[in-house]
Every structure is written in C-alpha cells, then in structure tokens.
Design goal:
CATH topology of the largest domain: Alpha-Beta Plaits
Number of domains: 3
Distance between the termini: 88 Å
Largest sheet: 4 strands, mixed
CATH superfamily of the largest domain: Cation efflux protein, cytoplasmic domain
CATH class of the largest domain: Alpha Beta
Helix content: 40-55%
CATH architecture of the largest domain: 2-Layer Sandwich
Strand order of the largest sheet: 6-7-8-9
Radius of gyration: 36 Å
Structural class: alpha/beta
C-alpha cells in the first residue's frame, strides 16, 4: 500500500524566516514609512509560533490604537504567510518619531526649516535669550536690602516716635551740602558709578546674551534648538584633520564668521586648499545652523614642506600661503 504524495514528508519553517516575516509585517501595519522595526524574535513549536517585535511609532498618534493595529497585523499576516497558528504577537514600543522627520527623510530638518509657514514667510530661529539670573538676583538683593534699611528707620520714626537714625541724618545732610552739583569728588564719583551701573543694567535688559550658543534651524513651529560654538568648532576640526597632509588645525567660530587655519606638511597647496575648503563647508552645513557663518580658510605650508616631485606650480615653496572664503 503506497502513501499519498500529499502525506509524504514534512514542511518546517525556521525561526529566522518567521522573524523576518514578522518584521516586514510590522512595517505594513500603518502608512508606508511610519513604523520602523528595531528588532524581532520568533519561536516555532510544532504548528504554533510566538513572535515579538520592537518598533518605533509615529508621533503624534494614539499610542494604544497604533500599537493594537501593529500587534493584530503582525499576528494575522505572519499566520497567513507561514500557515502557522500565531495566537498573539508581543509589540514593544521603543521610541516615537515625528511625522515630519519620517516624511522628509535624512534631510528632514534642513528641508523643514526652509519651508514657509502658513503666512508664506520663512520661519526664523531667534537667538537664545539669557535669563541672567545672577545679575538680576544680585541687583534685586542689594536694592531690597537698602530699601529695607531705609523703610525700617522711617517706620520707626513715624510709628514709634523715635529719633531718626544718626547715619540717615548724616547722609541726608551730606547729600544736601555735598551733592553732585557741589563739585566734590566723592559725590561726582558716586554719581558716575550709579550712571555706569544703570547703563550696564539697561544693556543686559535689551540684549539677548548667550553669545556662546548658535541657534539651529527650526524643524517645527514652537521648537527651538541651540548648539555651542565649541561644538561647531570641534566638528570643523574633526572634518579637516582627516584630510591627508593637514596638520596644526585651529578653528575659531563666531556668530558671523568661522575661521579655519591649518598647516600643510606635504602635497600641493592648491588642491589641498580646495579640499580643505570643501570639507570645512560640508561640516559647517551639516551642523544645521539657522544662520550659517561665513567661512574663511587659511592654509600655510609647514617649514619642512617640500614641493612634490614634478610639480609645475611656479613659486611653490615652504613660505607659500593661501586663504579663501565663502
């Protein structure tokens, strides 16, 4: 008696294949590109399979609803493609991703920053405003202490019928007879000091401060980000030092200018200067600054530099210098 062909042998599905199917099914649960899988796991036991996926979901979205849709789709799609029974799927949400970032891709921050807002105007990233807590706290403390001393003496005179304090009577008498209009140098010095203090406080009140930080491009309305100028300088320095022949790199980043000074140990100055400028420009653009500083590059040959063999550049020598800006 022969066994029917349909009953001969057995088909087994590896855990790896089920895991790949579950990963793919998770990305199909919502709109294309909205769900990303970090990792997945699957275990097959006979005709049953257990799957678990770790995903990143879009934001904003109802988390429970999105997670349930991913879970049901992974379980149903895996069972449909493998023929196994998948009672349930475990879904772990690792992170939330902004929809704008998912739509624009790797250059999302740059393209979103350049898009106009609802009024047709481009969004601007203002400079960060410093709260200046220490100067304000010191000025308020000194003013409160002086006012408190004067208030105590005035209340003591009018409420308790006490004689005015000797220091206040002497101060009033001196201010009356030796004021700034009297020509005495102590009064003029005190007036000049108060004037200078007032000017400093006014400057602190109307200027943003935080000159060590640069604003980044605004990816979304209401989102502000800044970066230290030292971090931008480090990015430029790392990008430049990787070039062949470049030594002694010095980078200074200001609010409006970025200066890169480097030394050339070997190679031709012309091509090396072009590579240096391009590398620094790419690194500066990758920082995503709202207002990109003007780049100035200066390349000097080192004392031990020698012209390459066969170089036809006239005048090349250890003292060649070059600078460029963009």
């Amino acid at each position: 008696m022969s066994t029917p062909a349909a009953d001969r042998g057995a088909t087994s599905i590896a855990d790896r294949a089920v895991r790949r199917i579950a990963e793919r099914a998770a990305t199909e649960a919502l709109a294309p590109g909205e769900v990303r899988t970090a990792r997945a796991a699957a275990a097959v036991r006979g005709r049953r399979a257990r799957v678990a996926v770790t995903v990143a979901l879009p934001y904003p979205a109802p988390l429970d609803d999105a997670g349930e849709r991913v879970r049901s789709h992974v379980a149903g799609r895996t069972a449909q493609l493998t023929g196994l029974a998948v009672p349930s799927a475990r879904v772990r949400v690792k992170e939330l991703r902004l929809r704008a970032a998912a739509e624009t891709g790797p250059e999302g921050s740059a393209s979103a920053a350049g898009r106009p807002d609802e009024g047709g105007r481009r969004r601007r990233s203002p400079r960060p405003w410093s709260p200046r807590r220490v100067p304000v706290a010191l000025a308020a403390l000194v003013a409160a202490a002086v006012c408190g001393v004067f208030l105590y003496d005035v209340v003591a005179v009018h409420a308790a019928d006490r004689a005015p304090a000797r220091w206040r009577a002497d101060l009033m008498d001196r201010l009356t007879t030796h004021g700034p209009d009297g020509g005495a140098w102590p009064g003029l010095a005190a007036a000049a000091g108060l004037l200078a203090l007032g000017v400093v406080l006014l400057v602190l009140a109307v200027t943003p401060g935080r000159r060590g930080r640069l604003p980044l491009r605004t990816p979304l309305p209401g989102v502000r980000a800044v970066i230290d100028r030292t971090a931008v300088a480090s990015q430029l320095r790392d990008a430049v030092t990787e070039l062949p022949g470049i030594t002694r790199v010095r980078v200074d980043v200001g609010r409006r200018r970025a200066r890169v000074r480097a030394g050339l140990a070997f190679g031709e100055p012309g091509p090396a200067r072009e590579e240096l400028t391009e590398a620094a420009a790419r690194a500066l653009a990758a920082c995503g600054l709202a207002r990109q500083p003007r780049l100035r590059v200066r390349l000097r040959t080192e004392p031990a530099w020698r012209a390459p063999a066969g170089a036809g550049e006239p005048g090349a020598g250890p003292t060649d210098r070059g600078s460029s800006s963009r």
